[in-house]
Amino acid sequence: MMEPRHFRTLFISDVHLGSKAAKADFLLDFLRHHEADTIVLVGDIVDGWRLKRSWYWPQVCNDVVQKLLRKARKGTRVVYIPGNHDEFLRDFPGMHFGGIEVVERMMHDGADGKKYLILHGDEFDVVVRNARLLAYLGDWAYDTAIRINILLAAVRRRLGMPYWSFSAWAKLQVKHAVNFIGEFERVVAEEARKNGADGVICGHIHHAIIQDMDGIRYINTGDWVESCTAVAEHEDGTFELITWRALASSVPALAAIEMHDEGELTPQAA
């Protein structure tokens, strides 16, 4: 059993609890093996859109919530920044729920002395902001890709092959999606600059990366539907992108983690 790793701050987003595609068991395993002084939940932790369509809340979703509440009770500061899928929480800024505080956005003081604006990012997605119907249609198409993803994952598991995300791969093959990602990153980095921040930490587009953009450090935490990624801040202020590839209980501990120090998530080959 590997000892939990401890960080100054952990950033997690886009878990989509309530969706059948959510890898809640992977996140629960991750939380068992990682501790932090502060955990920032960067939106879309609960998928209110899907829960409205049909209720799906298995025990593992409760387990994730209980795990976060337990960490809060034991002294970890847990901050929840709502996204578009859990926008119902935006009605409760400043409220505390079981020790978890809700804020619309926040400024994070890094250990390196730099300031990081933290937000989910959906306010910079033109589709979500101006055309909710198109957003729901896109959500349906995304669900279809995720169903294919689940089927392929089951086949690969039977063949003893590592997890690989078809939906993440497919998204990056579409020129429009690649252009959207690049534009989203540019606009969000500019928002950080306007707020006097040195960097920005966000989620929303399910594309995990740490990169510098014209003097602004852009960090996207990824998701727990396709890539199973989180961003960790070390005590010296450096950031690490962590990919939780498999349940640690079923594989050797070192094989369960694929770390990318201040770089882009690189999907494993098929």
Automatic annotation (TrEMBL):
Positions in coiled-coil regions: none
Listed CDD domains: MPP_YbbF-LpxH
UniProt keywords, alphabetically: Cell inner membrane, Cell membrane, Hydrolase, Manganese, Membrane, Metal-binding
Calcineurin-like phosphoesterase domain sequence ranges: 7-207
GO molecular function: hydrolase activity
Listed name of the protein: UDP-2,3-diacylglucosamine hydrolase
Organism: Rhizobium anhuiense
Source organism phylogeny: Bacteria, Pseudomonadati, Pseudomonadota, Alphaproteobacteria, Hyphomicrobiales
